[in-house]
């Protein structure tokens, strides 16, 4: 089970980093969340059905872990410090001020709005977003419009 | 700038992001395995500890009951000693069960969608907390009363009123302390989960 799981994590690590960057502000929390998500994925991997879309499953586990869990795992073993570049936020480091302003505005949204935004940016369909968050497609559309309006207002204010 | 403008650049930006090497990924997975092993060891440790403590407790109580039988305390009969011992054993078993139940709620993995996960976590915790309080509302007074009668009364010869008042006071203090523990540790997080769920439902 180890090798296919390693491959899966290696292939989709970007997705996990996006969730960590979206829901944590400091380096230590990001590393903790990354490890928690990998731990939950490892536990859930035996029950993962290969006919399901990998990214949908990964997003479900990652977002459940980032938003819905009551407590983090207690651990004594920690990461060795990961490469700084792995947790860098491309939109913030792109050199384009408008992109970094937009990312900063996204970080001011609620947890649920951030999830909708991130999934939309990652080209998930309304149906997929609905599957991951437990919303209907029309609800996703309504939430997304609300998010866009809110972002406009935040950017206007700043 | 609009969200869709960022979306246009989003994937390109992330494709340029440096990825972790397979070695680092392996290291993280190894670390994850260590964490899982640690947790299993910890569970094993608590289970083993419980397995040791329970018989020891039973032996101590049986010894106490036997002493009570051969050298009875003036106010405690042999059948009463047995019932106090049983109360203490029930308290220990229920406490272990409650601990395991709480652990399963806190560390639970839910593969469903976010709304289902939030709902499950909130309902499970609420159910646990209500049952926990109801159970200990009955168990604490019984436990403290039994403890005074069986273990402390032999030495201190307390009056019935003193035992009843002490048991009641200790029970109230224990319930208040556990409420504050849960309030400090979990209530804020539960409120935040409820807000998230409300937002998803709106």
Explained architecture:
The complex is a heterodimer of chains A (about 160) and B (about 200). Chain A is mostly helical and about 160 residues long. Chain A folds into two domains: about 1-90, Rna Polymerase Sigma Factor, Chain: A (Orthogonal Bundle), CATH 1.10.1740.10; about 90-160, Arc Repressor Mutant, subunit A, CATH 1.10.10. Chain A has seven helices and no strands. The model of chain B has no long low-confidence stretch (mean pLDDT about 80). Chain B is about 85% helix and about 0% strand. Chain B starts with a helix and ends with a helix. Chain B has helices spanning about 5-15, 20-70, 80-105, 115-155, 160-200. The relative contact order of chain B is 0.07. Chain B has five helices and no strands. Chain B has one domain. At the A-B interface, helix 1, helix 2, helix 3, helix 4 and helix 5 of A face helix 1, helix 2, helix 4 and helix 5 of B.
User: Which H/E pattern describes the elements of chain B?
Assistant: HHHHH
Instruction: Provide the gyration radius of chain B in Å.
Output: 26 Å
Round the mean pLDDT of chain A to the nearest integer and report it: 83
Task: Tell me the greatest interface.
Answer: A-B, 69 and 55 residues
- Name of the CATH architecture of the largest domain in chain A: Orthogonal Bundle
Sheet bearing the most strands of chain A, described?
none
Beta-strand residue fraction of chain A: under 5%
Label the structural class of chain B: mainly alpha
Q: Oligomer, anyone?
A: heterodimer
Helical residues, percent of chain A: 55-70%
Query: Between the first and last Cα atoms of chain B, what is the distance in angstroms?
Result: 27 Å
Q: Give the tally of structural domains of chain A.
A: 2
User: How does the overall form of chain B come out from the CA principal axes?
Assistant: elongated
Helix content of chain B: over 70%
Average pLDDT value of chain B?
79
Q: Calculate Rg of chain A over CA atoms.
A: 16 Å
CATH fold-level assignment of the largest domain in chain A: Rna Polymerase Sigma Factor, Chain: A
Given the structure, what is the number of helices of chain A? 7
Range of strand content of chain B: under 5%
Classification by helices and strands of chain A: mainly alpha
């Amino acid at each position: 089970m180890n090798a296919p799981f390693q491959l899966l994590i290696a292939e989709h690590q970007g997705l996990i980093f996006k969730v960590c960057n979206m829901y944590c502000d400091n380096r230590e929390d990001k590393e903790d969340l990354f490890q928690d998500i990998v731990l939950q994925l490892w536990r859930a991997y035996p029950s993962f059905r290969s006919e399901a879309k990998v990214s949908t499953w990964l997003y479900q586990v990652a977002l459940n872990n980032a938003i819905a869990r009551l407590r983090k795992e207690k651990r004594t073993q920690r990461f060795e410090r990961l490469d700084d570049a792995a947790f860098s936020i491309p939109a913030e480091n792109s050199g384009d001020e408008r992109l970094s302003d937009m990312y900063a505005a996204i970080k001011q949204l609620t947890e649920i709005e951030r999830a909708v935004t991130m999934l939309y940016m990652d080209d998930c369909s309304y149906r997929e977003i609905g599957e991951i968050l437990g919303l209907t497609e029309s609800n996703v559309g309504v939430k997304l419009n609300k998010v866009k309006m809110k972002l406009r207002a935040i950017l206007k204010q700043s | 700038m609009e969200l869709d403008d960022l979306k246009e650049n989003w994937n390109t930006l992330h494709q340029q992001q440096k990825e972790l090497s397979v070695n680092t990924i392996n290291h993280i997975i190894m670390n994850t395995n260590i964490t899982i092993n640690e947790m299993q060891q910890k569970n094993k440790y608590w289970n083993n500890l419980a397995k040791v403590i329970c018989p020891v407790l039973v032996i101590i109580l049986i010894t106490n009951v036997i002493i009570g039988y051969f050298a009875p305390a003036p106010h405690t009969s042999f059948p009463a000693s047995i019932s106090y011992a049983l109360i203490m054993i029930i308290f220990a078993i229920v406490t272990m069960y409650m601990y395991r139940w709480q652990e399963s709620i806190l560390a639970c993995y839910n593969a469903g969608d976010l709304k289902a996960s939030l709902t499950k976590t909130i309902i499970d915790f609420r159910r646990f907390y209500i049952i926990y309080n109801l159970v200990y509302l009955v168990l604490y007074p019984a436990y403290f009363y039994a403890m005074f009668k069986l273990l402390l009364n032999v030495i201190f010869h307390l009056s019935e009123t003193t035992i009843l008042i002490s048991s009641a006071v200790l029970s109230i203090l224990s319930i208040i302390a556990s409420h504050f523990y849960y309030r400090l540790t979990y209530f804020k997080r539960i409120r935040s989960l409820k807000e998230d769920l409300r937002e998803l439902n709106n």
